[in-house]
Amino acid sequence: MKHKVIIIGGGPAGLACVLQLKRYDIDALIIEKNHIGGLMRNANKVENYLGFPDGISGTDLLEKFIQQIKNNNIKIEFDEVIKLHHEKNEFVLKTLQKTYKCKIVVIATGTKPKKITGVNIEKEAADKVFYEVFDLKDTENKNIAIIGAGDAAFDYALTLSERNQVHIFNRGEKEKCLPLLYNKVSSEKNIHYHKRKILKSVSKKQCRLALIFDDQKKIDEHVSDYIIFAAGRKPEIDFFSDINKNEIDVLIKNKKLFMIGDVKNGIARQLAIATGDGIKAAMEVMLDSGFLILDS
Ligand SMILES: Cc1cc2nc3c(=O)[nH]c(=O)nc-3n(C[C@H](O)[C@H](O)[C@H](O)COP(=O)(O)OP(=O)(O)OC[C@H]3O[C@@H](n4cnc5c(N)ncnc54)[C@H](O)[C@@H]3O)c2cc1C
């Protein structure tokens, strides 16, 4: 199947890009492996995206994204890109279901959670271990442990504390989140924040989890229903290991390959930056004189 532009990832960056390409009447296919809206489904309240003076929940903003995509008759292809390479002046993308070819690829695949190391997680406990809050959003009256001390850990705690008891465990002394998140968490009676707690193991205890912490002075056990690891994220780029670094640089320079949003933004992982990247990439595709229209 041939397309002019293929966007990999239907998070905010990819959605902004496909929407802008639609405005130029440039045919683009967008492929999403999971849910439309990417990480927005995990966000508690977005207060730094212009146009929402009182802030907006991640879920409500996601609904607006989906509506906007529908209103513009944009179809999302639900599939996962598993391989990307470049040969004879075109890209070949392999997904779980199909093979696509195109001249221009926009990579908007965001990040994936860093897997925790140094913690022994019993196999039987694995079905109660999570890396995103979305999976537990409907949970009620449970005790949930969050391991981490950054924005995501504190944001997840706020989401879950509406209907559960939440414990945040920081292995260090100082939290690494925004002060406003820390202040919100501090005033929440259902959130309990623990410092200097180094998690060593997670095992099944009847139908719950036993978390063993070792702070060098003593060993503590905490019993919880679920655990979420929020220990940072890294770019989601495994599928293009076949293209070497030099070739990537040339493709980017020649505006054949675009990397947009969190996948390349380092610590500047923010919604407005991701959507801005998406619009900019679409404009560059449109303006690029080398742009060729392929027969489909
Ligand atoms: C808890 C939390 C709260 C946040 N709160 C805020 C906030 O208040 N304000 C703010 O500005 N930002 C916030 N952010 C950050 C914001 O969500 C991200 O900056 C934004 O979602 C990045 O968009 P993106 O499209 O680059 O990546 P993502 O949102 O990660 O989307 C990437 C998409 O690509 C898909 N994908 C990945 N690999 C493949 C593949 N191989 N094939 C097909 N599809 C693939 C993924 O499934 C995903 O849907 C928050 C993030 C989190 C986790």
Keywords:
6 helices; 20 strands; FAD/NAD(P)-binding domain; five-stranded parallel sheet; alpha/beta; globular; seven-stranded mixed sheet; binds flavin-adenine dinucleotide; 2 domains; 296 residues
Average pLDDT number: 93
- Identify every distinct bound molecule in the structure, by name, code or SMILES: flavin-adenine dinucleotide
What is the fold named in CATH at topology level of the largest domain?
Answer: FAD/NAD(P)-binding domain
Q: What is the helix fraction of residues, given as a range?
A: 10-25%
Structural class computed from helices and strand pairing? alpha/beta
The CATH superfamily of the largest domain appears as FAD/NAD(P)-binding domain
Total domain units? 2
Strand content: 25-35%
- Which segments are poorly predicted (pLDDT under 50) over 5 or more consecutive residues? 290-296
Mind telling me which CATH architecture of the largest domain this is?
3-Layer(bba) Sandwich
Total helix count?
6
Q: Which outline best applies?
A: globular
Q: What is Rg? A: 21 Å
Separation, N- and C-terminal Cα atoms:
7 Å
Largest sheet: 7 strands, mixed
CATH class group of the largest domain: Alpha Beta
Provide a descriptive summary of the structure in words.
By secondary structure, the protein is an alpha/beta fold. It folds into two domains: 2-113 and 233-287, FAD/NAD(P)-binding domain (3-Layer(bba) Sandwich); 120-229, FAD/NAD(P)-binding domain, CATH 3.50.50.60. It has helices at 12-23, 58-71, 151-160, 179-186, 245-253, 271-287, and strands at 2-8, 28-32, 45-46, 56-57, 76-78, 81-87, 90-95, 99-107, 111-113, 120-121, 129-130, 143-147, 165-169, 191-194, 199-205, 208-214, 219-224, 226-229, 233-235, 257-259. Strands 1, 2, 5, 6, 7, 8 and 20 form a seven-stranded mixed β-sheet that branches. A five-stranded parallel β-sheet has the order 11-18-12-13-14, covered by helices on one side. It has a four-stranded mixed β-sheet with strand order 10-15-16-17, with no helix packed on it. Strand 6 (81-87) and strand 7 (90-95) form a beta hairpin. Helix 1 runs parallel beside helix 6 and helix 3 (151-160) runs parallel beside helix 4 (179-186). It binds flavin-adenine dinucleotide (FAD).
